[in-house]
Design a protein that fits this description.
By secondary structure, the chain is α/β, with parallel strands linked by helices. Helix content is 57%, strand content 16%. The structure holds adenosine-5'-triphosphate and magnesium ion.
Amino acid sequence: MTLGDISGIKPPTVFIVDDDQGSRQLLDDILSGKGYAIRCLSSGELALQAALDEPPDLILLDVMMPDMDGFEVCRLLKENPATRFIPVVMVTCLNEKAMRLKGIAAGADDFISKPIDTTEILLRTRNLLLVKQYHDFLKEHAGILEQQVRLRTEELEKAIAELKSTQQQMAQQEKMAMVGQLTAGIAHEINNPIGFIASNVGSFGKYCEKLLIFIEAQQEALLSGQPDRRQADLVLEQRRQLKIDYIMKDIPEMIVETQEGVDRIKSIVRDLKCFSRVDESEQKLSDINQCLESTLNIAKNELKYKAKVRREYGELPQILCYPQQLNQVFMNLLVNAAHAIDSQGEITVRSWSAGERIFVSISDTGCGIPAQQLSRIFEPFFTTKETGKGTGLGLSISNEIVRNHGGEIMVESEPGKGSTFTVSIPVSRPNLPQKAAERQA
Ligand SMILES: Nc1ncnc2c1ncn2[C@@H]1O[C@H](COP(=O)(O)OP(=O)(O)OP(=O)(O)O)[C@@H](O)[C@H]1O
Ligand SMILES: [Mg+2]
């Protein structure tokens, strides 16, 4: 329906409500043949019921009626949301101001005075019906608009969910690419302890052989009854030849060393598992210094040929966060710092808390970032690295992760001197999912 053809759809319904048969007939005569569907009702109660059953487009309502007067009928009609929008014209011979005010208070939309003037009634009826039709038109279109908005909102929500899942996939891919970059270093880190564990196990084998020979020599001496001086000297000679004293001193040291190697491998594997895991959907109370340590552990080999790493950890309150995601941020900042250093430099990892926030800064003595690039480094795919070395997604993903934690990444850089990236995260966030907060409580 458009505004141009609103009169052509279905004849508007007009109620004529009057207890007097003559007055009803008069109004009916005036309005019939004008394209309206007319219904005459002889009391207020009947009018109210009929309006509820099938709301008309206009009610011409007599004021003076025996059981329920027009004011009351009008008030009830306007009180009910189902009938509130039906225009009510009060037909009255009372021309006094007070009565009109009473009618306005009851919600009347217009007045027609008795004796009835045909032109006046036709004009007012037409005008009020037009207003009602415009109202209906707007209401209907508001409904259509509302539905369109709802549909668009659903579409948008779906698109946002898809985008989020794509972002998560991209973040995961970036993370795995980083693990790929670090693989050689991690392999080296694991190989080192494996090397000395293997060598220790070899030595253990030889030591065991010698110990067994020595135990047998001792046993022979014991089984010969009363071991004499000669036999005792023989055993002592074997002890010297087999270097039993050295073995006894070396074994505990080798055990400690082997244990350390095993622990190192265990911790690298644990950090790696934690780092590369698809992100958990739950937040955890985490110690960010510990996160930094395990990330440094994985990146160790990547960093150690480029820089001396200095740790300046301050005391931090535990924060509710997605630790693997933050590890990914720290890893990217650390790898970026190492890449920025040409031959040898220094990387300083600091952490501190102030106010209701914790801060982690990663500074390097690398090449720095030229001013014209500084505003672009957080853009997705912005990279100055050669193809295959960087995708340019690291900082944009890191920025997204930190923002999801309610925080921000700040950068200061001086070309030729180095850069400092500072991550700041609020200790607690008001918009934390209630469940996660409760679980940690
Ligand atoms: N510490 C830094 N020192 C100097 N330049 C940096 C530093 N960190 C980032 N940059 C600049 O910002 C660019 C974007 O970094 P970003 O981490 O987003 O991507 P990338 O390191 O190039 O690739 P990747 O996706 O593998 O991380 C880098 O290519 C580099 O030019
Ligand atoms: Mg990077």
